[in-house]
Write a structure and sequence with these properties.
Blueprint: H1 2-9, E1 15-17, E2 24-26, H2 27-31, E3 35-39, E4 50-54, H3 55-79, E5 84-91, E6 94-101, E7 112-115, H4 122-133, E8 140-142, H5 148-167, H6 169-172, H7 175-184, E9 195-202, E10 208-212, E11 221-229, E12 233-241, H8 254-258, E13 262-266, E14 272-278
Helix pairs in contact: 3-5, 5-7
Length: about 290
């Protein structure tokens, strides 16, 4: 990164700039850990590509939004019966805390409730056992702790850092990146950037792919497709302004018009490297609490 910055500035290599806050750092800051190595896509959801960011942007700001991306994937895994979710059962005899596995509900794939004794009242546990044996009804709440707005920021942050890893400071100092940084750093209240669920028909080998959308009528928009993994690989597309577009509002609302489109791209040798169908916004939900 130091050589890339020196190339742009026409000076000798010696420092780097945090691509998120634009604060300048030197080699010494690597040694005192105020400049840190960060995964572009959070490591907790399968990220492998790294880049240098400052400690505050990485450990403080990054961890806040990263947790919501991971919680969102946990929620999707739970709905598909791939992982357990923490449930609270509200019974007249007392509260019961449990881990719930939501499967097909068949003899081969039964739905299971594992009581967490430390988080439960014994009277409530006994009442739950009675209700289950008598096929009674009870209410439960599962809170995945997902804030949709912070999850959006986390996905945009990952897409932005992936572009920095690919294009270097040329992208960081471009006009199109300035508005994205304001959004990532919380300087903007609204999030006028589309998030799309992506169904790959041909799985690409990289952890992300950046696709110019000129072929489908949007010449100044990039679709950055991220590959995220907990129990299952999932793909999400983030719409970002390409060079020459500084306004986020200019690309707001495109997600809906892109839903259902097939995207296909080939390398220099003509071999298809990606083929995917774009879906709807997976975060366009009234609540992440069920």
């Amino acid at each position: 990164m130091a050589k890339d910055l020196a190339r742009l500035r026409g000076s000798a290599p010696g420092g780097v700039v945090c691509p998120l806050c634009l604060a300048e750092y030197t080699q010494q800051n690597l040694e005192d850990h105020t400049l840190t190595e960060e995964h572009c896509v959070p490591q907790s959801v399968g990220g492998r590509i790294t880049i240098l960011t400052c400690k505050k942007c990485n450990n403080t700001d990054g961890s806040v939004v990263e947790s919501h991306v991971k919680s969102f994937l946990s929620m999707l895994d739970w709905f598909e019966g791939l992982s357990e979710g923490r449930a609270d059962l509200h019974l007249p005899e007392g509260h019961v805390g449990a881990n719930l596995l939501w499967t097909a509900g068949t003899p081969d794939e039964p739905r299971t409730i594992k009581v967490v004794k430390k988080a439960s009242r014994q009277a409530g546990v006994e009442e739950l056992q009675r209700l289950i044996s008598s096929k009674g009804k009870f209410n439960l709440t599962i809170n995945f702790g997902v804030n949709a707005q912070k999850c959006r920021r986390g996905l945009v942050r990952a897409a932005y850092l992936c572009l920095v890893a690919r294009d270097g400071y040329e992208y960081v100092f471009s006009g199109s990146a300035e508005g994205v940084r304001k959004l990532i750093n919380g300087a903007r209240e609204t999030l006028p950037i589309g998030i799309l669920e992506v169904a790959p028909l041909l799985v690409f080998s990289e952890h992300f792919v950046a696709i110019p959308l000129a072929t489908v009528g949007f010449p100044q928009v990039l679709l950055v497709v991220l590959r995220l993994t907990l129990e299952k690989e999932r793909y999400f597309g983030v719409l970002l302004p390409a060079e020459g577009t500084s306004s986020l509002e200019a690309i707001a609302g495109l997600a809906e018009s892109l839903a259902g489109k097939l995207l296909e791209g080939a390398g220099a040798d003509g071999k298809i490297i990606y083929r995917m169908v774009l879906g709807s916004d997976p975060l366009d939900i009234p609540s992440c609490r069920v």
